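RETRY 2/3 - previous attempt timed out on the joint model. Re-submitting the same 623-residue input unchanged.
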Amino acid sequence: MSVAQAPLSDRLLIQRAARRSLPRRRIWGYVVVGLCIFAALAALSPLIAVLAYTVGRGIPAWSVDFFTQLPVPPGIPGGGISNALVGSLIIDGIAAAMAIPFGIAAGLFLAEQTSRFANAVRFVADVLAGIPSITLGLFAYALLVVTLGHFSGFAGSFALAILMLPVVMRTTEASIRAVSRDVWEAGAALGGRRVQVAFRMVIPAALGGIVTGCLLGISRAVGESAPLLFTAIGSQFYSFNPGQPMAAMPLDIYQLGIQAYPQAQLTAWGTALALVVIVLLLNIGSRMLARRLTRHAR
Amino acid sequence: MSSPALPESAVVRSSGGRRLRVTDSVYTRSLQVVALLFLALMVAFLTSMVLQSRSAFQHFGLGFITGQTWDPVHAHFGVLVFIVGTLASSAIALLLAVPIGIGTAILLAAYAPPFIKGPLSALVELLAAVPSVVYGLWGLLAVAPWVRTVLEPSLQKIPVVSAITSGPPLGIGLLLAGLILAAMVLPTITAVSRDVLASVPTEQREAAHALGATRWQMVRRAMIPTVRAGLLGAVTLGLGRALGETMAVTMVIGNNNVLPHSLIAPTQTIASVIANEFIEATEPYHLTSLVAAGLVLLVICVIVNGLARLLVWSVGRDRIQVDVV
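RETRY 2/3 succeeded.
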């Protein structure tokens, strides 16, 4: 029997019980809010601690030499990470150049087609987004390092490109799907071919979302070191040739950070700060761009 | 997408130009070719992993999974230690991150006013943007000394806890790996749980209030039961992330190829043993065993992630972004 159907006397009893239990229920509410606020503070504490440590320990390592000089052997003060800056730029640039066009085309495919084949591709892309990045390093090693006979920056780019692919594909798909059907139909009504409608009308309308996805993909790749361990492998010198071993910032942080020399650790913190600044700028930039464009679209 | 049907010839004729014309069928075919290339790449990935690890599985059989010995010198390889290390460190991480993440998600979805909700969400998501290797550096150089001098000695003084935290306090080890992993999976669990909770229809929340429920009763009776599967999915996604995490764990887990006999013992995960030993692997069966370990990890992660996505999608596939977080 529900409350509404109950006889009047019972209903009054229920109302009274509800009113009487209100203080107790309110107190539980306060306890839970307190716990949730505590949880939120606990969730923020690692972020604050990581950033505070990285800034506090990294700033002392920064100098003009730090960004313009080559590394020096352990124990000797000075030196810099310019080769890792160059290496990261080249490795990530090649990775982006491979992943972005391919990812946008594949995302366009996912947005345009609803066949079983498209569902399979979408599923595989989702699975790819969740696999450990180090296994991509193993793939790049087998495919490029073993066959070419030496470690290379390009093998690292290849692994990072695969890592970026699902992000670019799925954000492209989502932003193209967000463009109104009317745009497709208007384009066709004007006599445009599908490719013209897609590239002249739909993609420009979805560009904000696509750029956001690309930036997010790049920011994910820039910080990755696991796939580079046995592909780009690192280097002490300038290397502008992607066919050769290359230094990269995340690799430097790992290789210097696990050394016992305070000087090496200082350089590791300085590199970590530079990497965090780059990654956060890419990340925040992409989010702000996304917000501005969605507001603009409204 | 079904395009408004126009006869292809009409379209081509009307557009006229002298330049190379990409007809609709050529365009559709080229997109399909790109998608096929993508699938081919993934097939190549899987094939390469299987081919590289085949000789390890053939040589050691099932003993590769159940063996506790990882001895490059005598060419004897079993990955049980690393499977245990991977599961144990992820379990510690979830134990810490689940209550914190879901608590934060409840705050964001049901309590926080907009001027707190936006910045708090953004900050938690920034936590996911910090590179893994930076967490590793922070864990190794900043958190490990604190764990060694403060956390581990005090845990060893608590009566029951001391039984599972025996051994010399080293700082690095299973416990520290779990702590760092907890920070790394928090954003995933928080962001997905928040979206899952937010997918509860407003009418349903308002109905609970109309029946006289306090806000917490509304959360507990009207929100959480509706999306229980999605919350489980959020946790499972976090698990998937913790299992495959490499650099941070490699730097803080102690890299010791023995079963952890205590919560604070240094041990090894599948990902960390690959990161540590792959470059120096020259002994027979060493390299192939490392790739085989990677294949085991890959299979575990694919299963966990597939499960997580099914759970999250059971709540609402369109409203919850899983990948970008």
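Chain A is about 75% helix and 0% strand. Closing ticket.
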